[in-house]
Amino acid sequence: MLIPVILSGGSGTRLWPLSRKNLPKQFLPLAGELTLFQQTVVRARALPDSASPVVVCSEEHRFLVAEQLQALGITDASIVLEPVPRNTGPAIALAALQALQRDPEATLLVLPADHLIGDAGNFTDAVHKALPLAAEGWLVTFGIRPDAPETGFGYIRRGDALGSDAFRVEAFVEKPDRATAEGYLAGGGYDWNSGMFLFQARRLLDELAQLAPAMHAAVADAYQSAKTDLDFVRIDQDAFAQVEADSIDYAVMEKTARAAVVPVHCGWSDIGSWDALWAASERDAADNRLEGDVLALDSHHCYVRASDRRMVAVLGVDDLVIVDTADALLVTRRDRAQDVKQIVEQLKTGERPEHRLHRKVYRPWGSYDSIDMGERFQVKRIVVKVGAALSLQKHHHRAEHWIVVSGTAEVTRDQEVFMLSENESTYLPLGSVHRLRNLGKVPLELIEVQSGSYLGEDDIVRLEDVYGRA
Amino acid sequence: MLIPVILSGGSGTRLWPLSRKNLPKQFLPLAGELTLFQQTVVRARALPDSASPVVVCSEEHRFLVAEQLQALGITDASIVLEPVPRNTGPAIALAALQALQRDPEATLLVLPADHLIGDAGNFTDAVHKALPLAAEGWLVTFGIRPDAPETGFGYIRRGDALGSDAFRVEAFVEKPDRATAEGYLAGGGYDWNSGMFLFQARRLLDELAQLAPAMHAAVADAYQSAKTDLDFVRIDQDAFAQVEADSIDYAVMEKTARAAVVPVHCGWSDIGSWDALWAASERDAADNRLEGDVLALDSHHCYVRASDRRMVAVLGVDDLVIVDTADALLVTRRDRAQDVKQIVEQLKTGERPEHRLHRKVYRPWGSYDSIDMGERFQVKRIVVKVGAALSLQKHHHRAEHWIVVSGTAEVTRDQEVFMLSENESTYLPLGSVHRLRNLGKVPLELIEVQSGSYLGEDDIVRLEDVYGRA
Questions:
Q1: Structural domains of chain A, ranges and CATH numbers in brackets
Q2: Locate the Mannose-6-phosphate isomerase type II C-terminal domain: which residues (chains A, B) (predicted)?
Q3: Using CA atoms, how far apart are residues A89 and A7, in angstroms rounded to an integer?
Q4: Is A308 on the interface with B (CB under 8 A)?
């Protein structure tokens, strides 16, 4: 059985303000209609004999993962929740243990969730070349054929050929300086280390046990106490916190005698920055990539992304990145795009929410967006998915008015239960116990006007919750 | 009597997206708490013996002018409405006719509403130097002492001295090229033509009658049919449309034998572009002018203006103008700021509302802001001023929900009249005749949720209106 392992734990801070802690880049439709995570899943599903994936993600993103899988019609994935981040070594080890539950002979195709692959055919070919090697017990890494002297990636030096399309790994080399990278590019025999792998689950764990026995033991220990809850495999936080953080490269790949590389030229990008996304995107005649409602005059080599309901006009500018969102706007130079993480660091230091939360917040039941705010009021647009329900809740400091603008709501208010449809409204006095549910066939949209002296998200007492949050 | 004439008809397209047709730059607080218009009025009021002003503006801006004057405690201004724009010649002639109604000996201090003057003391001194000349029948213009070889202004060549602080005007010269401007600056004897004047109303009209008799006759004719309505002097549209458009410079100043110039060095700027505003503003250690919630890293010589409720982060950029508003964002280079009007032209051509209207729209009774919109709904935040009332109205295609979030509303709904206070709501079915009034002592704020198949501003039947709009 070929089981895709989708590593979805990244934070993508360099793609702020679109990518944020609660909605990192892999869950965004940065290139095309599907999110990067969904594209990765679809890419893996397209392989013959591919089983449903094991997804490893942080607990915070579990509903995003479930929802984005569901939108693809995938309901049988294993979603393994890392209670704390521990880098790729422990994440892959967890996935391997989970895969072995399904098939003791499982082969794993490990794919980071936030990579873009332009040429899926070449990628599929490379997987087919790698499969026989994995069957022979090789730990195969996919090496990206360089087309530029990149200094932002590690490289793999090819050793002896293993058949016509693969090589032993002679060495993993760290990110080079510019001159060295130019040498690698000119001389050949080097590939970029993409972080994509193919190996038998059993074999990987055996190597880990031998090369990083402490990590192996700690992960095995943590996995033993895993609990399955709703669709999720929950790893015990205390146990997982004991695991040392390390990459699979350091823990296994650089030490094993059985590392192989299959070179591939597949339009790969790790979308490590806005500049990288610009480079990976189709561009217009002025070499601009314009997303959304953008008017560009006499401007070149720019990446401009407008947000909903606001146009962007650029005039006489070159080589800029402009990314607008509901609550934060970024303007930088493409060649400074790597430093966007400095902004995120400053926002963290200042305890500003913009590094973490979007104005529109996704919840298991749907989403809310704070569309206006005043001294003693807040207005939210709330969308409830078909079949979903908010928790049964009450507030100590605010009353709420609900006006349904689309779909139909079932409203619980203290002892009453009643329906509200489009253009109907109700009032929830301070302290009333209430719940909102969408029993209809279309999404429910409503406008909520909150009125009160304190309007923070933490003024909520959850009495019952179908998502385990009460 | 010294009567200030505030010319408020400008459109300020180069300061888009903040300045728009329905709210041009003179009515914005671009530098300080007061708007440029208010600063101009205050500057004139500070002169000894200054009477209340005559304001000339377009009909569209009449309530803005009235409100901004009222905020300064000025209730006795004459507000003359130009039904169509005809440049400064006819506007000043109208103001002169209006001033003569108050005092046949009136002296006019003509000030464009959209200029910034940093050093009010020097400006006042210059007016005092000019007053005796005006009394002798001179038409005095204020010449700005150049501090740079500007190619964007006309210049005045000084002639013979008139006392120690003034000169005959030898010639008005057109905008020069760079080399000529450098010569003017180096050689001295030239001042920028600021568009500020001091003269007797009677004298100006006599000169106009002699030098531009057709304009004089047409303006006099139009003024004769003027009607005073509320606080406004309304000029008949058909009559005023007959007047030829021309500047006071061409019509009178360049032809009269009695033109004098009083040079002044008063930190003057016409704020003709974002670059000019940057130049006229105090800047930080990195030579940036940052307005609102801006995080600037490693950026220099920029003008950055954030809008409400959204932060702007800039990183590694120099010499940019970034201006954000609720529905449009501009990014350009400072040295291209003059070309912002190209964007406005494109928006006009595309019939996009962003060249004309802000998302927040001012009305005589207060304002509304469209905070959210969907397929069959729209959400507005409505503010009603103390003592103000919306028209008695109805809609054919929408129902409305009103939730009061601050203050108290008197609501008329068909036969009923009732009060709503904070955290109370009501529903106005499609077709109901309704009115909203603020009888309280604080502004009334409410959230309006509109529901219906057509939500355009033009679905309104006004049955009664205190502002003459029914």
A1: 2-269 (3.90.550.10), 274-346 (no CATH), 360-464 (2.60.120.10)
A2: 352-465
A3: 11
A4: no
